[in-house]
Amino acid sequence: MFGPPVATINPPGLPIERGKIHEFACSIYDDNPLYHDEVAAKEAGLPSVVAPPTYSSVQAHFASANDMSGFGDLGMELDLRFVLHGGQEFEYIRPVFAGETLTPHQGEIKTYEKKGRRGGLMKFAEIESYYTDEKGEVVLKIKNILIQTAGVVKA
Amino acid sequence: MSDSAFDNIKEGDEFALEHSNFTRTDFVKYAGGGGDFNPIHHDESFAKMAGNESIFGMGMLTAGMLSSVPSKWFGATSVKKYGVKFKSRLWPGDNVVFKGVVTKVYTEDNVKHVDMDLFATNQKDEVLIQGFSTCRPWSP
Predict the structure, then answer these.
(1) Partner residues linked to B19 by β-bridges
(2) Which of A90, A94, A96, A124 to substitute to test the interface with B, most B CBs within 10 Å?
(3) Cα separation, B45 vs B22, whole angstroms
(4) Closest-CA residue in chain B for A66?
(5) Residue B128 in contact with residue B62, Cβ under 8 Å?
(6) Could you tell me whether strands B14-19 and B79-86 are parallel, antiparallel, or unpaired per DSSP bridges?
(7) I need a surface site. Which of B17, B46, B58, B66 has the fewest CB within 10 A?
């Protein structure tokens, strides 16, 4: 179903931390107590604070300091000057909590090309990844969509 | 966070959050919080050299804020699926409304599920992000 761990996406053994979740939640202006308050989380019967749905971006960036090679071998050449993040999908088998250590695995990569509205050729890469917990169970599936445009995009 | 949000939910129900006057500081704060240090989001001269009017916000900043709609509405542990497609960019000074509309309420594996469409829309009624989410009550 999925490949071996992708060590470059996340230094092995790096735990998800309360402080980083707090900082991340502040940066998206979300004051949900379950993101910030360990006591509130425990009172709700949870092991610790919850990682917000898009928190895994943090791990993806730990990866490779702006180097999209963190995505692994795409099987196509992308010119990073013209690559846009087209979209992203998250599927949580269960919520993720501070204190856990997740291991990312690369899944399927689909690439295809489409003609853009302005006539240029656009290349698409859909990249799946899977995050497993300490028991080796998949807790989170992510699909990233990258688009390479024919040149600078004027919005 | 409460499971009771699921109790009387029905198709067409809405929930919205908003954030006014995004600043460059908001983008820098997300760079630190989320780890995206692409200079196009914080370095004005770099952004202009790349053909942009100014720096602009990270898609994942808007996506992170849009994810607060399902997580505030149905609870932080309730988000089963969340997806976004980036449509337009977020600029300094923008006012953005983050909105969810329930499209389907159903039961799967004896658990109530709610599907919703999500939109982040700026003051010019441009959709910045189109998204979706599925929520269901979750307990440890």
Answers:
(1) B96
(2) A90
(3) 19
(4) B38
(5) yes
(6) unpaired
(7) B46
Work out how many domains chain B is built from and give that number.
1
A102 part of a folded domain: yes
- What angle separates helix B59-66 from helix A18-27, to the nearest 10 degrees? 100
Question: What are residue A125's DSSP bridge partners?
Answer: A111, A146
pLDDT tens, position by position, for chain B (140 residues)? 455 899 999 999 999 999 999 999 999 999 999 888 888 899 999 999 988 999 999 999 999 999 999 999 999 999 999 999 999 999 999 999 999 999 999 999 999 999 999 999 999 999 999 999 999 999 88
Both tokens of residue A73?
A: 């071998």
Chain A interface test: which of B22, B43, B55, B80 (most A C-beta within 10 Å): B80
Contact B1 A46 (CB under 8 A): no
**What spatial distance separates the first Cα and last Cα of chain B, rounded to whole Å?**
14
Give me A102's structure tokens.
């997740």
Q: How far is CA B36 from the centre of its chain?
A: 17
CB atoms within 10 A of CB B22: 21
Q: Decide if A94 is inside a domain.
A: yes
Residue B40: inside a domain, yes or no?
no
pTM of this structure: 0.90
ipTM of predicted complex: 0.95
